[in-house]
Amino acid sequence: MDLTATPTPSLLLDRDRLERNVSAMQARMDASGIGLRPHLKTAKSIDVARLAIQKGAHGVTVSTLKEARYFFDNGVKDILYAVGIVAGKLPEAAALIERGCDLKVVTDNVDTAKAIAATETPIRCLIEVDTGGARAGIQAEGPELLDIGKTLGARLAGVMTHAGHSYGTADIAEIKRIAEDERAGAVRAAERLRAAGLSCDIVSAGSTPTAIHGENRTGLTEFRPGVYVFQDLFQVAINSSARDDLALSVLASVIGHNKTAGTILLDAGGLALSKDSGANGHRPGVGYGEVCAPETLTHHAGLFVADVHQEHGIVPITSEDDYTRLPIGAKVRILPNHACMTAAAYEDYIVLQADQPPTRWGRINGW
Amino acid sequence: MDLTATPTPSLLLDRDRLERNVSAMQARMDASGIGLRPHLKTAKSIDVARLAIQKGAHGVTVSTLKEARYFFDNGVKDILYAVGIVAGKLPEAAALIERGCDLKVVTDNVDTAKAIAATETPIRCLIEVDTGGARAGIQAEGPELLDIGKTLGARLAGVMTHAGHSYGTADIAEIKRIAEDERAGAVRAAERLRAAGLSCDIVSAGSTPTAIHGENRTGLTEFRPGVYVFQDLFQVAINSSARDDLALSVLASVIGHNKTAGTILLDAGGLALSKDSGANGHRPGVGYGEVCAPETLTHHAGLFVADVHQEHGIVPITSEDDYTRLPIGAKVRILPNHACMTAAAYEDYIVLQADQPPTRWGRINGW
User: Fold this and answer.
1) What is the pTM of this model?
2) Which residues of A touch B263 (CB under 8 A)?
């Protein structure tokens, strides 16, 4: 792969690795007998959505209504907007449904459920359940569940949960326990709603770690992992990805040698890599990313982006030889901590595939 | 200011505060008898550039060549690209100069200086000097200075430095010392070049803290602060801004109450606010921003965005009353940690001014 003429910083996507990740996740869900509704907050790209759907995904998940519009305008019909909606956003959701989009929204409170139940255009809604992540959602055993279900009435489409706390441990046995909590909580909420005479077609759960390590998906109808399409150093750090699965990287140039400070400077800083340093909690020293050879993605041993300023990445050297192996003007590829955050700074991906010229895939950023 | 119909999350810019910040900095530089070349990596907006130029700025500073193109295409001629250039980017710089842009570039090494000296289109270049920030630049007293100067020859336009380490302390006496190091280093480098028979028209320094607190600017020709146009909680934390100067905020909606966890959820998370948590080093507990009343920007006492997920901001409550004062659907404005990083997620600003309808100003993101 000749990257000599590719400008820096650029966001590179390895298509073969992407396709392998997408196929492996589909196979995992097929084996469990449930659907896959990838969370496209990571990729924000219709090309990635099409690949996932081609491999078997029955719908998609989005994190903004702007994404919902974009995917629907590009032919995707079955869309779950998985961030709790508020009344002020319902007209935007209704407008999409009126145009034929099978959009479903999410709530965890009676006030919003009332607003949803009252819209002229019927809006289908899932109830968000907290299965330990302690972000959004009500307790599966709590009284609010049935109140919200009854308020939604015929507009109740199901329940959903996200075990975000699966990102908090690298212990696979613990991730398996979290996956079971996630599953059991969603299924229990569905059972309670059904026992109260309410319909609950969709029982949706998922995160990448619980998708990778969970063993029992009984009672779920679908899973919603997101970052698995690209993977990243964080997922490697918590044992939910192999390093060779990492499909996303940032191409950067060496723009300076600060021999007094003992550092190599790159033109990829806090904007090009993001300021997410999450992987360090599980893998201290990884900084803002691994500095790799551009053609092979082999790690330049010992070299990490230790600090970032807006447009500068700072790489401490391990020996004076690093100045020789990475002369000014040399290119490197950086494997990032958190693919979702890194990709968000770019308008598009440069998509690399063996024996093919690079192509560009667009992204839908913002709100 | 009625923000009821404004979508969330949105990036709000208070025009009166912006204008006050711009005027105050211009007055400061006028009093020092040197020029102001604002670093537009913060605002990335032609409207902000025009305001600064109208108040007296003689040129602008940019952090990407994309910004340079954008500002030149919108009528700004005198532009300094203040991130070390590499040979591969010289054709892009030359193309702008051929179109009439008075673009100046920056280097700190002989290899790049040779490439600059060899371009067909003459490219003017400043030598970057490290005055303690230990990011890019050579030492003012080091041997490389004259080597680079001689290599550039007639293309040498001056010297520049940035005391980035002024962000590392809230001690005003220490910031004053750093400001003097920044000034003295740049001036010393210029003197050495001139003593060697080289011309050195531009002697450029600057950061917001050293602009605010520096007392002596003798020998400098210009200053390049950036974030002062908007200011942010980080600058407040290091005593380089008053809270009432903060011109940038994020409008968000309350999307949930997690009464089990004791949190209020906002629809502004790691993308809408950025993951920059820098202010906490000087002001522990500020998290990802202060939660304020939307109309007045009064802080909802005790409420901070303590954690962010991609599209969720998590605000721990101080008492159960917080659920009443911030019901689901309520709007808040969040004062961010680091204006440069927060603004980068948005395509445009919603510009608020007393007794005027809001307008939109665009931004130039990416590379």
Assistant:
1) 0.97
2) 134
